[in-house]
Amino acid sequence: MTDAGRQGPGAAGWFFGCLLIAMGALMALLCGGCTAIFWITALSSGDLSSAASMLVLSGVLGGLPALGGVGLIIAGWAILHPRRPPPRVDETFR
Fold this sequence. Notes:
Strand content: under 5%
Low-confidence stretches: none
Oligomer: single chain
Number of strands: 0
Mean pLDDT: 85
């Protein structure tokens, strides 16, 4: 069985897929890491009223870009690995 009919993303699709994955990984790691540091600092401070506001603020300002980075990783992966329709039954046993 060969993959002669399989179509890849092409050179431009490969480049932009890898670019999206790289940008998404940087966003997720840097924004998520900074948010985790802020959360650890806020929770270890001992003052619950300021910790709660710090958790919400850092979650919105750092967590949303981190989720955007995860979205970019998923979009880049979808470009590099496009879904193929399932083979028809009559072509399965050729």
